[in-house]
Amino acid sequence: MCLDQSKLLEDIKINKSVLVTSISKMKEDDLTLVVQWNFDAFDINRSRDRNPLHTIDNLIKYIQNSGGEDLFNLHTMFMFQTERDFYECVRHFSAWSRHTIGLDDVATTLKIVHHNIYEVFQYEFAFNWP
Predict the structure, then answer these.
(1) In the prediction, which pLDDT does 1 show?
(2) Residue 9 has what DSSP assignment?
(3) Where does the source fall among the domains of life (predicted)?
(4) Considering the entire predicted model, what is its pTM?
């Protein structure tokens, strides 16, 4: 099941001042991935499919190891200094984290881009890359 991405901005669990402060840290051409984790997609052990390696924590580590700076250590906003790092990260999420028919999606995401102005996009491809 897909989450309703149109509600992400109003539902996201970070406060406005954190978002504004995070955006103000962005340099020209930085990209930020904003993630609203869907905890209902994981079991009591925080695993998606009972595999102990298929967890939100491992997805967070993967994003960090791919160049995503975990802003304020909240695990919801990850700033990338290059477009390449951003797209390499989202392109190579593990198959288990991708959209799967019959399972809840692991997260809903936004992409924030700084090109003279700040642009915010619903970013459905992070965990749903073809």
Answers:
(1) 43
(2) H
(3) Eukaryota
(4) 0.81
